[in-house]
Design a protein that fits this description.
Elements: H1 3-6, H2 15-42, H3 47-62, E1 65-66, E2 74-75, H4 78-89, H5 91-108, H6 113-139, H7 158-181, H8 188-207, H9 210-218, H10 231-252, H11 262-279, E3 283-290, H12 293-300, H13 302-317, E4 325-330, E5 333-339, H14 343-357, E6 361-363, E7 366-368, E8 372-378, H15 385-401, E9 407-409, H16 413-434, E10 437-446, E11 452-463, E12 467-469, H17 475-481, H18 484-505, E13 513-518, H19 520-523, H20 528-539, E14 546-551, H21 552-557, H22 559-572, E15 575-581, H23 588-591, E16 598-601, H24 603-606, H25 613-628, E17 632-636, H26 641-650, E18 654-656, E19 664-665, H27 666-674, H28 681-688
Parallel strand pairs: 8-9, 11-13, 13-14, 14-15, 15-16, 16-17, 17-18
Antiparallel strand pairs: 1-2, 3-5, 3-8, 4-5, 6-7, 10-11, 10-18, 10-19, 11-12
Helix pairs in contact: 2-5, 2-6, 3-4, 3-5, 4-5, 4-9, 5-6, 6-7, 7-8, 12-13, 18-20
């Protein structure tokens, strides 16, 4: 019972702790040595029964009943056999048995000497206090019974049972008092009360067996041989307790890494906060999420992903201070709970986490690098486990949005940002139901002929209070929440329906095509092919009139997975455009494997044409690569006549941008549709370029 608290004793004990330790060691060991000397001089009990009881005390001390998931929170069955010796032969044999069993157990478990001395002395004093209680009953003639080695007690009366119970209570209270006195974490009163409620029922249940053990030991000359039979029900109880503990362990630990899980983490934070309220020590939660971990699972498989998580958990364990708790929160998220931590050390631990993850992980022929976004939250007097985890999680997302592999500390302003994000999420769900989404269109021109070849459909949100919002203000949220799937489906249907209306109303728009963006989340949707096919069928638009734009990064992140999807889309007849080309990591070898029909040069390179020679070189390289693969090139963000002329010279096929038109609602873009074929495209272009 003492293990849980004694294991936390400070390196420099307080006066209270030192006094408790000295009392147990000097008093308890003094009594034990005196008992051995007295028995040696006066004679030992019946050697057969005494040896049997001694063997059982030792065995039970080595295999205590663990009553919770903490292996140190155990109740030893040996107490029942030690008390039986107390009733039958008096305090001296009982002292010898309990001290010998404890010493043997502590030595085999390699416990520190100071702990061994305290535990044995503590139980010796407790047994002595119980013996004094029984002796008081004997001296006052109130029916208490207690034998001696020379005259063992062979029968027990009903009044003696009352004194037995009193002796258990005294024994238990002395034990608790000494353990609480040596606790380094809590005031004596709190430690005493906490252990009293935890241990009393189990200790009393074990001690209640002691009269039965005593009766069996002395009922008959050979009845001591029946004592081992009492081990059978005790072993059953022990096995049941172990199975219960294992079930509890599984419920509170992650099966992959063996770390405490989310439920166990919450309990640990609650305990830490309770201690903090008494001591005033700081409690900090450090929350971390592995960056781009999904790429590892998608690219190398979940088996490698699981191995990475196991190795990450082992590396994180190396940065812990004594007393810190590391848990796997969920998926690729981990949390550390730190107590008694100064401000400067928070940054030190975060830096050690980053340093521990920096070396590459090697699995068979694969080498994987991992970084983490880290959020830090410090407890306040009003913190709860839920609020502290929520704050650490908010800080982690701030670190992720700052570029990943960053550390962010929680600030109250993040509450407002989180609330605003939740409001936007709810509003975005309602936007679908309330018809607040809008489709705007931007013409795409042939740079040679000046013809309007197609339209790019761009989504907008007509927010009820904030006005018209561009995609940058809500698409990242839609990606994170999964709302991008219904938003993307709406955009595909709406743009194709609009193309159908234009074709019915404007005969010149028959050859017009529609470009619609696909997000990375949509590209992973197993129902994507069906949705595209259904939308084409319902609107009556030919598949060749639909151009799907997919960012280079989305395609290249998991090429093996995306290539079959792109092949399926091309088999429908849909044309595919690689959007934002030049910002990812495509190579000619990779690009030629893809069933794409065009490359769209990112606006960041087009903007620099005429002013930045590097951008000119990049766009030139892209057009040459596209020409070698028989792909068309679309330049976006064209704003000046100089950019237009350079793109013509380099051989780009098409362009779009403010030079011609911004993205507009369908009714405002209709004049462009009506002029899809410009009779005198050169004069039209001159007019557009301000040349008269």
């Amino acid at each position: 019972m003492a293990e849980h608290v004694v294991g936390q004793m400070r390196a420099r004990p307080s006066t209270r702790e030192a006094l408790a330790w000295a009392t147990a060691v000097v008093g308890g060991w003094g009594l034990a040595i005196a008992a051995v000397a007295r028995l040696t001089m006066a004679g030992w009990p019946d050697p057969r029964a005494f040896a049997m009881l001694g063997l059982l005390v030792v065995l039970c001390e080595l295999r205590p009943i663990v009553t919770s998931r903490q292996a140190t929170e155990a109740v030893s069955i040996s107490q029942a056999f030690a008390f039986a010796a107390l009733y039958v032969w008096g305090p001296l044999p009982a002292l010898v048995l309990i001290v010998a069993a404890l010493v043997l157990s502590e030595v085999l478990e390699r416990k520190p000497l100071w702990k061994l001395l305290f535990n044995a002395g503590q139980y010796a004093l407790a047994i002595a206090a119980a013996a004094l209680t029984l002796q008081l009953g004997v001296l006052t003639g109130l029916g208490a019974q207690m034998g001696s080695p020379a005259q063992p007690a062979t029968t027990f009366t009903l009044p003696s049972l009352t004194w037995f119970v009193l002796s258990w209570i005294v024994y238990h209270l002395v034990n608790l008092a000494l353990v609480a006195a040596i606790s380094a974490e809590q005031p004596w009163t709190e430690a005493f009360v906490e252990d009293f409620w935890f241990y009393t029922s189990s200790t009393m249940a074990v001690l209640a067996l002691s009269p039965l053990v005593a009766v069996v030991a002395v009922a008959h000359e050979t009845s001591w041989m029946l004592l081992p039979l009492l081990m059978l029900p005790l072993m059953a109880v022990q096995r049941s307790a172990r199975m219960s503990r294992e079930r509890e362990h599984r419920a509170l630990h992650d099966p992959l890494t063996g770390l405490p899980n989310r439920l166990s983490l919450s309990e640990g934070i609650e305990t830490a906060l309770a201690r903090s309220s008494r001591t005033g020590d700081r409690v900090v939660v450090i929350f971390l999420d592995l960056d781009h971990f999904k790429t590892i699972n998608d690219g190398l498989g979940h088996a490698v992903g699981d191995d990475v998580l196991i190795q990450v958990s082992r590396r994180l364990a190396t940065v812990l201070r004594p007393g810190d708790t590391l848990a796997r929160f969920s998926g690729d998220e981990f949390a550390l709970v730190c107590e008694c931590i100064p401000d400067y050390e928070i940054g030190v631990i975060a830096a050690r986490i980053q340093a521990a993850l920096e070396p590459a992980f090697t699995f068979e022929s694969h080498e994987v690098t991992v970084t983490a976004s880290i959020g830090v939250a410090t407890a306040t007097p009003y913190s709860t486990p839920e609020s502290l985890l929520r704050e650490a999680d908010s800080a982690m997302y701030r670190a992720k949005s700052a570029g990943r592999d960053q550390v962010a500390h929680f600030h109250s302003s993040m509450h407002e940002a989180a609330k605003a994000s939740l409001d936007d999420q709810l509003g975005l769900r309602r936007a679908l139901q309330r018809g607040e989404l809008r489709a705007h269109y931007q013409p795409i021109f042939c740079l040679e002929s000046g013809r309007v070849l197609g339209m790019e459909a761009l989504i907008r949100w007509q927010h009820p209070t904030r006005g018209l919002l561009g995609p940058d203000e809500f698409i990242p949220l839609a990606e994170d929440t999964g709302l991008i799937l219904p938003l993307g489906a709406w955009m595909l249907d709406e743009s194709l329906r609009q193309l159908g209306r234009w074709r019915r109303e404007v005969p010149e728009s028959e050859g017009l095509w529609m470009a619609v963006n696909l997000s990375p989340r949509q590209l992973s949707d197993p129902d994507l092919i069906h949705k595209v096919s259904r939308s084409l069928g319902e609107t009556g638009i030919a598949a060749t009139s639909l151009h799907l734009e997919i960012t280079e990064t989305a395609i290249m992140q998991s090429l093996d997975r995306t290539t079959p999807i792109l092949d399926a889309l091309r088999s429908l007849g849909v044309r595919l455009i690689v959007d934002d080309f030049g910002t990812g990591y495509s190579s000619l070898a990779r690009l030629k494997r893809l069933p794409v029909t065009a490359l769209k040069v990112d606006r960041s390179f087009v903007t620099g044409l005429g002013t930045d020679s590097s951008d000119l070189s990049i766009v030139d390289a892209i057009t040459n690569m596209a020409r070698s693969l028989n792909l068309e090139v679309i330049a976006e963000g064209v704003e000046t006549s100089e950019q237009f002329q350079i793109l013509q010279t380099l051989g780009a096929s098409m362009g779009q941008g403010y030079l011609w038109s911004r993205a507009m609602p369908a009714d405002e873009i209709s004049p462009w549709v009506g002029n899809a074929v410009v009779p005198d495209h050169r004069s039209s272009l001159r007019a557009l370029l301000g040349g008269g």
